[in-house]
Amino acid sequence: MNLRRLAGLAGVATVALASAAAAEPTRGCFFVRDVGDRTVGGPHTLYFKVKDVSHMHAVAYFHVETKHVCDAVGSDTEHGGFQISSNVLSARHAQMICKADDLVITAGTVCPIATIERMLPQEVAALPRRIRP
Questions:
Q1: What is the pLDDT of residues 76-92, one digit of tens each?
Q2: 119 — phi, psi (to 5°)?
Q3: What is the C-alpha separation between 81 and 91, in angstroms, rounded?
Q4: Domain ranges of the chain
Q5: 3-state helix/strand/coil string of the chain
Q6: CA-CA-CA-CA torsion for 120, 76, 42, 33, nearest 10 degrees?
Q7: Which end of the chain is more exposed for a tag (fewer CB within 10 A), N or C?
């Protein structure tokens, strides 16, 4: 009897975690696997988009500022010259990013992150075409 109750509670917890993971892009959290195009806006400025992989369209755009100049991120025209990863794993061992401390940018070396902000549609539209992710 207690085993059934424990199994039921485990099932409820699993459903709750899955629901939270599905809702996270609206809160600013996303999975690294969903990161799409990425561009460089300057020596400290990076942009990338997060895609809904089932429909292949962008659901969010992010603006990242690094604390110092990254080795491989020095050119305004360099696209995709950096890798995105996270030090946080979700329930299914997928890398998840919710705040600047979670984000790891690698461009030759690891680049410390100063800020990460989700961009408004107006901000994305105002970016020059050559650096829009």
A1: 445 557 888 898 887 77
A2: -90, 145
A3: 29
A4: 2-131
A5: CHHHHHHHHHHHHHHHHHHHHHHHHHHCCEEHHHEEEEEECCCCEEEEEEEECCCCEEEEEEEEEECCCCCCCCCCCCECCCEEEECCECCCCCEEECCHHHEEEEECEEECEEEEEECCHHHHHHCCHHHCC
A6: 60
A7: N
